[in-house]
Design goal:
Chain lengths: 113, 115
């Protein structure tokens, strides 16, 4: 069965520091992978997605993610975190047949001034 | 371009009462999804529509939840009767296509509290 694991429930970083959020997936075929961000009281906003090709994908707000098939990972990175990045981040894999998104449980990012 | 609209944004009811949520997807999007997000968890798909037909409702508790998408545009999700464990955020999303490469756009959600 398809699944997504985000090992870190909560992460705290200082403003200006680099960030890496981990995501591991279980999927039989080539996965379609996504990262979404959810600010308090808001819906989910797409940060970036990977379907095929270059394994390093760029997204909005300065985020990037790297697909590593050998490690079944799709980690999200940002070189310098801003206070406005504090939010909950979700990694997801999609069923290529139906488009059904399967989400991880999320990582809450706190940014210290 | 207008995003996915949902109403109400917040709803508080007592257990055994009924409640309905409304969703208006992005214009032209054929596929509509309803997700349930319980506090501390990722969203879980309840039901997926392609136009006005159901594609996947395997995770929908059909004894109390129902959903419809008349005319292939707006959709309503109903809970009757509500239980305490239904307290969650209900998210509606839409996409242009139903395949895996169809990016899903989410509405702001409806936060339901069942007392």
């Amino acid at each position: 069965a398809q699944s997504v694991t985000q090992p870190d429930i909560h992460i705290t970083v200082s403003e200006g520091a680099s960030l890496e959020l981990r995501c591991n997936y279980s999927y039989g075929a080539t996965p379609y992978l996504f990262w979404y961000v959810q600010s308090p009281g808001q819906g989910l906003q797409l940060l970036l997605k990977y379907f095929s090709g270059d394994t390093l994908v760029q997204g909005i707000k300065g985020f990037e993610a790297e697909f590593k098939r050998s490690q079944s990972s799709f980690n999200l990175r940002k070189p310098s975190v801003h206070w406005s990045d504090a939010a909950e981040y979700f990694c997801a894999v999609v069923s290529s047949n139906t488009g059904k998104l399967i989400f991880g449980q999320g990582t809450t990012l706190q940014v210290k001034p | 371009e207008a995003g996915v609209a949902q109403s109400p944004r917040y709803k508080i009811i007592e257990k055994r009462q009924s409640v309905a949520f409304w969703c208006n997807p992005i214009s032209g999007h054929a596929t509509l999804y309803w997700y349930q997000q319980i506090l501390g968890q990722g969203p879980k798909l309840l039901i997926q529509f392609q136009n006005n037909g159901v594609v996947d409702d395997s995770q929908l508790p059909k004894d109390r939840f129902s959903a419809e998408r008349l005319k292939g545009v707006d959709s309503t999700l109903k809970i009757q009767p509500a239980k305490l464990e239904d307290s969650a955020v209900y998210l509606c999303a839409s996409s242009l296509t139903s395949g895996g490469q169809g990016t899903q756009y989410f509405g702001p959600g409806t936060r339901l509290t069942v007392l």
